[in-house]
Known about the structure:
It contains eight helices and four strands; from the N terminus they run αααβααβαβαβα. By secondary structure, the protein is α+β, with helices and mostly antiparallel strands. The protein has a domain at about 35-165: NADH Oxidase. The radius of gyration is 18 Å and the shape is globular. Keywords: Oxidoreductase. It comes from Brevibacillus borstelensis AK1.
Amino acid sequence: MTKSHFPEVAENRSAAYEIDPVFLNRWSPRSFKEDQVPDDVLFSLFEAARWAPSASNEQPWRFIVARTAEDKPRFYPFIAEGNRIWCEKAPVLALILSKTVSGRGTFNRAHAFDAGAAWGYLALQATKLGLITHAMGGFDPEKAKEVLGVPDDYELHAVIAIGYQGEKEALPEQLQEREKPSGRRELSQTVFEGVFEEK
């Protein structure tokens, strides 16, 4: 179990109510070491994701993983240049996608919601094991579908960089000042009682 807050987290984040430190310790650094992630560690992340909840137990999420010298460059053409300048160092890239059609042949309205739950489980397991993750929306889904041979009944959500945290100074100068955990709006701006309120 994650026992305490990481130093950079303690400087930038605090919870209004008591929660397990893993929730605050999970953030999205961009500086990765190039150290490889052992199979047993890496696949425990996907094992955690496997146990996420889903509507009617459809488990619509899928992951396409790239971690070899042959597979990783296949991902690069569909990742936005602003992300490529840092994510190419990550030892693992994973594309998360979800099947939009249910086992009954109908549209699964919860497919993206459920894939988000699987991503959350993966990210928390990574944090508990001393890894970092950074999910990127900056990529071309259509190009990714074409390159990776993804069928039309799947929606692509994010490319996730996975690995061990590197030094902030290893990043391009313009990214170094952003290399810290972000805050969150107050709970009162997110949770409403009875009716919706825009605050």
